[in-house]
Amino acid sequence: MTVNEDTFTNWKNREEIAESMIPIIGKLHRERDVTVLVHSRSLVNKSVVSILKTHRFARQIAGEELSVTETLPFLEALTTLDLGPSQIDIGMLAATYRTDERGLPVAEFTARAVAGATGANKIERGEGRDVVLYGFGRIGRLVARLLIEKSGSGNGLRLRAIVVRGGGGEDIIKRASLLRRDSIHGQFQGTITVDEANSTITANGNEIKVIYANDPGEVDYTAYGIKDAILIDNTGKWRDREGLSQHLRPGIDKVVLTAPGKGDVPNIVHGVNHDMIKPDEQIISCASCTTNAIVPPLKAMADEYGVLRGHVETVHSFTNDQNLLDNYHKSERRGRSAPLNMVITETGAASAVAKALPDLQAKITGSSIRVPVPDVSIAILNLQLARETTREDVLDYLRNVSLTSPLKRQIDFITAPDAVSSDFIGSRHASIVDAGATKVEGDNAILYLWYDNEFGYSCQVIRVVQHVSGVEYPTFPAPVV
Q1: What is the pLDDT at residue 62?
Q2: What does pTM read for this prediction?
Q3: DSSP-assigned letters across all residues of 32-60
Q4: Which of 34, 155, 265, 388 is the most buried if burial means most Cβ atoms within 10 Å?
Q5: What does the pLDDT average to over 455-474?
Q6: What pLDDT, on the 0 to 100 scale, is given for residue 351?
Q7: Are residues 316 and 394 in the same domain?
């Protein structure tokens, strides 16, 4: 047998193992509300090739290969345990098992590592929480996709309704079509049917009522069987407490804004300050996509090195609030053609840092340039640190943060020397550290942070909604604090 044949046989064997993992992952998710991860990347509803690619990606951040032959025993061990709702990272289980010196069998090691999700420690499965989307634009449709994707167990978040203004003939058909196909993020993974007579869209078995209203005060959500719901406002029309309070109608318990909040509205970046949300707080903001991109790595750097001052320059993809061709716009430069120009504009992300990191005394300034790409942006974070360090030390630290810290769902890490913006479309992290571009000299560090300003931000929104709804499940093995 030739070397090529050996390589191909090995690939086919790994395909077979990955295929055997799919029903186990699916059953754990449906029956026990357990999401199986590999280095913070979900394996739920993934194909054979996707599972193999997710394992192979581990070499980028962990520095060595991770094979399905290593993780399968841990996955099989999970099936023997009395698990409650949780997220379990079999990649981290395999990695920590490699360095464990106790010599335990895989089954016993796994049982100990996830003990917080078993027996008397496990969380009881709830009835789920109703969610309403107010507006159905770029972020609204991606949030809808994520809610539908995560509804597999039936005990988490349930998208019950979408509120939009009437758009004329075949309105619901056109909106369903935009959910079904997206020029950037691709096809919806599943089936979508439309019932015009009853004004519903059914996506992967989730029946979603489409409610037409021109104003929040027009809707009584209890008339649609909706109760204690979380309403996600992705229109950005109202940003202060007074305006957003209009959503607190019968059937709505909390309001989450997908834009920076004004006044006393808490601006939340999941992973950094979501624990500050008071149980009785009814109105919160998820800040901006750029704020979510820069605050987690800024916190990480401040915790380890201290930060005296900084500047963030965002090179941002164009958005719907710009003009396709030159036309009137209330902003000075955004009226110029978005796909034909680089456009200097403002960003509120730097000033929003103070709300998310109130203990950070460093002055952070910021500016932004909109560029002719439809998605994925990069933030260049230039920091003066409180002590001198080296590039190698910073990269090792941030790699570990992305793997084992409480910020591992927010911060990703990549070493690929040929990475470009389109490679990060669909990233579920708030930001991705580009190791190759990182520069450190003495007390100055410059981080290049990629982020999918649409999908990655939508994932952060979902995490906040899960937290305030009580369906944010613990992750095992527990992150290193």
Answers
A1: 59
A2: 0.92
A3: H-EEEEETTEE-TT--HHHHHHHHHHHHH
A4: 34
A5: 92
A6: 78
A7: yes
